[in-house]
Each structure stands twice: as C-alpha cells, then as structure tokens.
Amino acid sequence: MSEEKLIFEKSAPGRRAATFPALDVPEAAQDWLPEGARRGTPLGLPEVSEQDLVRHYTRLSQRNIGIDTQIYPLGSCTMKYNPKVNEDVAGRDGFRNIHPLQPDDTVQGALRVLWELEQWLSEISGMPAICLQPSAGAQGELTSLLVCRAYHDSKGRRPRKVLVPDSSHGTNPASASYCGYSVETVKSRPDGTVDLEDLKPRITGDVACLMMTNPNTVGIFEKDIALIAGWLHAVDAQLYYDGANLNAICGLARPGGMGCDMMHFNVHKTFSTPHGGGGPGAGPIGVKEHLRPFLPVPRVRRSAEGVFSLDQDHPQSIGRVRTFTGNFGILLRGLVYLKSFGSDGLPEIARRAVLNANYLLALLKGRFHAPYGGRCMHEFVLSLADRKRDKQVSATDVAKRLADYGYHAPTIYFPLIVPEAVMIEPVETESKETLDELAAILARIDGEDPALLHQAPVHTPVGRLDEVNAARNPVLRYLPPA
Ligand SMILES: Cc1ncc(COP(=O)(O)O)c(C=O)c1O
Fold first, then answer.
1. How close is the Cα of 211 to the center of ligand 1, in Å?
2. Local structure of 233: helix, strand or coil
3. Residue 233 near residue 258, CB atoms below 8 Å
4. Ligand 1 atom with minimal separation from the 269 CA
5. Ligand 1 center to 64 CA (angstroms)
6. 238 CA distance to ligand 1 middle (Å)
7. CA-wise closest residue to 78 among 284, 352, 325, 326
C-alpha cells in the first residue's frame, strides 16, 4: 500500500477546494485584534483542490477499521451500528447552529431535548434524578463519587473507602482514587460473580461506596446485587452501578430496582452514538432521591406552563463538572435513538444482544476455553492461556491477525482476572451470517502458523507496533522531513 502523504505535504500555493463570493458588506475594523490575528496573516493551512481533498480523506477512511465496514467485537464497549437518522437530526440547523449562551427562551427546543432525555433515562434506570453533564462513563463515575462524598459530608461523615470487584474496569478504582478515596479490591468467585464471603466483612462504617457492573465484565449477571445493596445500606454506604453493560438489560431490568443508589450511562455505547478514538461521548448520571440535592448545576427545569429553563439554584450542588449542559450533539443523538426504538423496542435490543453473544459463544466454546461456562449475557470472555502455553500464541497475536482479515480486534487482557483474556461483545445489530463469519475466521487463525501470527498484522498499512515504547515515549507532534 502506498504511503499517504499528510494533507499539509500535498499543499501547493494557490490551490483551492472552495471559492467564496466577493465581500459585499463593509470590511470590519481589525485594529483591535492582535497583529497575528488580523486578516492577511498567513494561517499555514494546506492549499489543495477539492478533488485532492476528497481523495485524501476517502483513502484515509479506507485504511480504518470501523463499525461502518465490519463487526467491531470490542468487549465492554458496545460497538453497535450508529443509525444515520441520528446524524440527520443532529445536523439540522436548529440544533447545529445554536449557541450554549443563547437566552433560554430562544432555545426551548434544545432544552426540551435535554429534559426529555432525562425522562427517558430516569424511566430506563429507575433513578429519579438525572444529570446529563459528564462527557464519558469515567467522568460519570467521578461525578457520582463527588456526589456520594457531598452526601456523606452533609451528614458529618467522611467514610474513606471505595470497594471495587477484582473484575472491575480500571476507571472504577481510578475514579475512586481521584476522588480522594482509598480503594479496596473484592475477590470474584470461580463463576465470575462477586465473592460474598470476601465482601461482607469489608462492609464497615468506613465504606463510602461499592462500585458494581451488572452484568459484570465477564458477562455474568450479579444475581446477589439486591442482597449486597441491603448490606451496604445498613451502614449508609452507597451502591454504584457502572452502566457500561446496560445494553444487556436495558428495558428489561432497572438498576434502581436492584438497590443501586447512583450510576452512569454510556450514551456512546448503549444508545448508539459514535465512539472510539477518544470521543466524543456522554456519560450522564442517575441518582436516587437522597442524592438529588448534590447533583451538578445547571439543571433543566420545566415549569407548570411547559417552559424550559436552566436552573442554578441548588445550594448543596457539587457545582459544574463540564461546560454548559454536556455534550449536546451526542445527547441529542441518544434521544433520537431512544425515540426511534420506543419503549417496546428497547427490551428487544437487549434480548438480541444477549442472544447474539450466546450464539457466538456456542460457536467458539468447543475450540477455545470459556472460563465462565457456556452461557453469558451480552458478552463473554475466552482465555487463550492454553494456546500461549502450548504454541506461544498470545491473545495479542490473535487480535493483531484479525486486522489482516479486516476485522477490529476484541478487547484483550481485560478483565485482569483471566489470563490471556479475549473479551467479545458482538452486539444486537450483527446478523447471524456475520457472527458465523467471525467464528470461522477465529477458527482459521487458530489453525495458522504461530510464526505468522507473531508477525501479524502483515496486510495493514502499519505493521505490529512496539506498544510499550509507543505508550512510554509517544511522539505526538508531526515533524516535517528535513
Ligand atoms: C465496565 C466499564 N466501566 C466504565 C467504562 C468507562 O467508560 P468511558 O469509556 O465512557 O469513560 C468502560 C469503558 O469501556 C467500561 O467498559
């Protein structure tokens, strides 16, 4: 594959992809602007023709593995198809061209979008109060923990610990520690669920919160969650629901009903908005009534007459966690998705996500070791520890080789409790044929020469990278060839 030059390297003075009409209004004075910002200052932008521009970005897009080209079985990430109607609505002038500082009476439609989304999320979760501000699941975790701390502070208490299962996502302990808590890990049982015997003695007056994912990160439903909630509430500790896996139960079961006090939603997972590559995302949180006073401001309010406004007047609020009201364009897309499927469609999404995962697991479990058995919720974990032992083929080798067949890799080496973990979440939008194909390719890779797998990927624009070096010594700045 030929080397693709940067768009800056393709630049030639005077080339244009667009022509602008002649100025037909008086030129505005510029003397108040700093010198480098005045008209006529060279901007250093690439100068290319429209055709070169289109070809460049089309070629780059073809080098990518994305949800619009292939199944993207990245476990714990819910990489479902992003319906184009979401984009269509988000691209409409009335949404795209508004400014967050406009007076409330000029953006009633946008405020209504936020308010309606809050109603949907509340209904889905069983959490009476919703805040849409956080921009990612991880930020939702941190915001909820700040709310939890403010709640305990209001009662004159400062419990110091947050408990997290050993299967939890790394953001859980990271958020807790960032919020000033010390983190204590709870063991899992061999079936993948939280070990009650290990957990119970840890629940003391010094525990602020337990963070649980349900179904958990090995794809198993934590059926003791209500019992655990009771233990926590007896010492006024809170139960946090990590909503990353909500797709498995959305419309079928509600975290609020399981006894959880607070949670985050990953709009970019469960509600189909594009993600990957670092964003953009949205991680709204939901809380029970006793935590409502501490939620961030501003909050969307609807008056008895149906007028929407942004309300700042909440003296116990933890304040803002993000500018304005959150990642509006993503929240809007999430609402479009919810309204497209409606309350009857959501349970069907969850059922199909679980069915697809079980179908794929059934195809693979005869060949690969499935440490948590032959049934799962929306995702499952395989272990390649035996391949590593017998053939020196690692989870990385298999994941890299999938790229040679045009597939994105599953999640690997997570959760940490499974050696050589391969975590697969096929999601509900994939067809039986696609799942059959993925299983066949994995079987084919399993039969390939280990020496080839160690080199993989060999048919991609970029070969195997030195990941440790890339993480420790990242070179993020473009330096033109000397
Ligand atoms: C179980 C779990 N919790 C939390 C998160 C964090 O969510 P986000 O990536 O939106 O910050 C993830 C992300 O993959 C996750 O899988």
1. 13
2. helix
3. no
4. 10
5. 22
6. 20
7. 352
Give the residue whose CA is nearest to atom 7 of ligand 1.
137
Token pair in block for residue 315: 């003296």
> 42 C-alpha vs ligand 1 centroid, how far in Å?
42
Work out the number of other CB atoms within 10 angstroms of the CB of residue 290: 13
| CB of 213 sitting under 6 A from ligand 1 | yes
136 ligand 1 Cβ < 6 A: yes
Strand partners, 240: 211, 262
| Lookup result for tokens 């809007």 | 332
Distance 140 CA to ligand 1 centre (A): 10
pLDDT truncated to tens, each residue of the chain (482 aa)? 568 899 999 999 999 999 889 999 998 899 999 988 898 888 889 999 999 999 999 999 899 888 999 999 999 999 999 999 999 999 999 999 999 999 999 999 999 999 999 999 999 999 999 999 999 999 999 999 999 999 999 999 999 999 999 999 999 999 999 999 999 999 999 999 999 999 999 999 999 999 999 999 999 999 999 999 999 999 999 999 999 999 999 999 999 999 999 999 999 999 999 987 656 899 999 999 999 999 999 999 999 999 999 999 999 999 999 999 999 999 999 999 999 999 999 999 999 999 999 999 999 999 999 999 999 999 999 999 999 999 999 999 999 999 999 999 999 999 999 999 999 999 999 999 999 999 999 999 999 999 999 999 999 998 998 989 989 999 888 777 66
Three-class secondary structure of residue 119 per DSSP: helix
Return the number of other C-beta atoms located less than 10 Å from residue 28's C-beta.
8
Does 169 sit in the ligand 1 pocket, CB within 6 Å?
yes
Ligand 1 site, residue 171, Cβ cutoff 6 A = yes
CB of 283 sitting under 6 A from ligand 1? yes
Q: What angle do CA 265, 379, 208 make, to 5 degrees?
A: 45
Place of tokens 């599953």: 410
- If you compute the radius of gyration of the chain from its CA atoms, what whole number of angstroms results? 25
CA 90 – CA 290 distance, rounded (Å): 34
What are 188's strand-pairing partners?
194
| Beta carbons of 195 and 188 less than 8 angstroms apart | yes
Other C-beta atoms lying within 10 Å of the C-beta of residue 320 = 13
